[in-house]
Write a structure and sequence with these properties.
Strand content of chain A: 15-25%
Strand order of the largest sheet of chain A: 1-8-3-6
Pfam families (chains A, B): cNMP_binding, HTH_Crp_2
Oligomer: homodimer
Number of helices of chain A: 8
Largest interface: A-B, 40 and 40 residues
Distance between the termini of chain A: 36 Å
Order of helices and strands of chain A: HHEEEEEEEEHHHEHHEEH
Protein name (chains A, B): CRP/FNR family transcriptional regulator, anaerobic regulatory protein
Organism (chains A, B): Roseicitreum antarcticum
Radius of gyration of chain A: 19 Å
Largest sheet of chain A: 4 strands, antiparallel
CATH superfamily of the largest domain in chain A: Jelly Rolls
Structural class of chain A: alpha+beta
Domain Cyclic nucleotide-binding (chains A, B): 36-153
Domain HTH crp-type (chains A, B): 167-245
Number of domains of chain A: 2
DNA sequence: CGAGGAGTTGAAAGCCTTCAAGCGCCGTGG
DNA sequence: CCACGGCGCTTGAAGGCTTTCAACTCCTCG
């Protein structure tokens, strides 16, 4: 561990502990203005502080299993989590990709409907469910924000359905890489145009579960995009996008309609 | 037109006109207790009455095109509508199937995000958008109910994603028929066990857009399920399910986990 | 009666999956 | 210290499921 300039080089558990130690105060929270609490006033925030607690997970850990009791709802603070459904014979489909500020759990439902897994080191801001539900009734700001976020998720799910139902394997891969690139740009406030180098936060297998493909097909299509110069890959995970428009052409989406980021 | 016992035998436009004529008063509304207004009190309902109006569409008509201005939000009162996305080259994927009581449109968004089409004769209860948005701010009951409905839709979308990403053509068809059967049972309050005869409300093409298949594959798989005795088909649309458990086995879903209906 | 829409079915092609083998990296334990 | 084993990933070859292209039926409507 020669260079310790970024948190990336530190052991995951330590980083998570640091993050949660840093985050006792909602005012310092990195997702303060995007999460379910975004619209809360100072007094409402104080109420939330009383029922919140942080939990950390290492990459690969399961947060909850589908069907398990779930006594909390939560926001992703840092890291990435996934929601996955599994069929009896083991076929798996990812149905949610949760980034910082995204919300986990459903008020009013006692059990988890999906497997929730940390795909990177993960810190979540959890609220005990019952107090949270009570607070939702008294605090319209929370319900309003949650509605907004849920509508956004529904839009994303519908975009995803188009991908799953109608796109080719190549288009699926191009779409996923574009999504990750955009997300990265938005998190880093990058000026969109440079920052097109990033680390894929998903294994080939996780990508295949996202895209409704096998991991072999994912691997082959990534290789194909690399061969065709659409992307540049260093090692297994580091991706550079020399020409974003070229990549977007490969997604099959409208070239113009890009109102997102 | 010898037997006119049910509305099915009447010209669509007339039925729609009848329905909307019957429905000036929210208290007589068939979706009063399931739609976005479900939790409203008498005074709130009165407010809604002032900003509502009915619109009728014949089977096949387009309600709005993706990208068009949309000055209203609405509830489906009777009939079925679909939300569909289209790619540049014409590939289409249905992303929403709207039944009576389902909500159309997004408060706060000026344009339609999807093509909305009536697949059967359709009556919608429309609210002018601006007044509706204003009312949402003053009336938590509406926002609360809308959140609940949106969360349900998100769950449905995620189930659908599993279907699109991981199920075989045969499983997709069995799943769709099961969904329609359940819906029918729930609308007719049937005692679940008999009423397993119904009309498919979708063309083969609409089914293919729902399932991410071609219409030929839909046709072939329906024929295969018929050959195997899983379903009985009279004419092109009328389906009988002799053994629902058998059909459910064909969906690939958990046999037990059926908490729906 | 002809035209057109909805649906069915056959044959061939194609895309993705399945099955297999192999590479490179990393942590463990002899 | 180094061999071993596992994991993540890549690549090849064969097979299969769905699509594509095409022909044909049935029914409705003008």
């Amino acid at each position: 561990m020669t260079k310790a300039t970024t948190t990336h080089d530190q052991p995951p558990a330590r980083v998570a502990a640091q993050v949660s130690a840093l985050l006792q105060d909602c005012n310092d929270c990195p997702i303060r203005h995007r999460a379910v609490c975004a619209r809360c006033e100072a007094d409402e925030l104080q109420h939330l502080e009383e029922i919140k607690y942080y939990r950390s997970f290492e990459a690969g850990q399961t947060v909850v299993w589908s069907g398990d009791r779930m006594d909390f709802v939560a926001s992703v603070v840092t890291g990435i989590a996934t929601l996955t459904q599994t069929m009896e014979d083991g076929r798996r489909q990812m149905v949610g990709l949760l980034l910082p500020s995204d919300f986990v759990g459903r008020p009013g439902r006692p059990t988890a409907a999906y497997d929730v897994t940390a795909t990177t080191d993960l810190v979540m801001c959890c609220f005990r469910k019952k107090p949270f539900e009570d607070m939702m009734l008294r605090t319209p700001h929370i319900g309003q924000r949650l509605l907004e976020m849920t509508l956004d998720e529904l839009d994303a799910a519908r975009e995803w359905m188009l991908l799953l139902g109608r796109k080719t394997a190549r288009e699926k891969i191009a779409s996923l890489i574009t999504i990750i690139a955009r997300r990265n740009a938005s998190l880093n406030q990058a000026s969109m145009g440079d920052s097109l180098i990033f680390e894929l936060p998903l294994t080939r297998e996780a990508m295949s579960e996202y895209l409704g493909l096998t991991l072999e097909t994912v691997s082959r299509q990534i290789s194909a995009l690399r061969r065709d110069g659409v992307i540049v890959v260093e090692g297994k995970r580091r991706v550079t996008i020399p020409d974003l428009d070229r990549l977007i052409e490969e997604t099959g989406d409208d070239t113009d309609g890009g109102f997102l980021i």
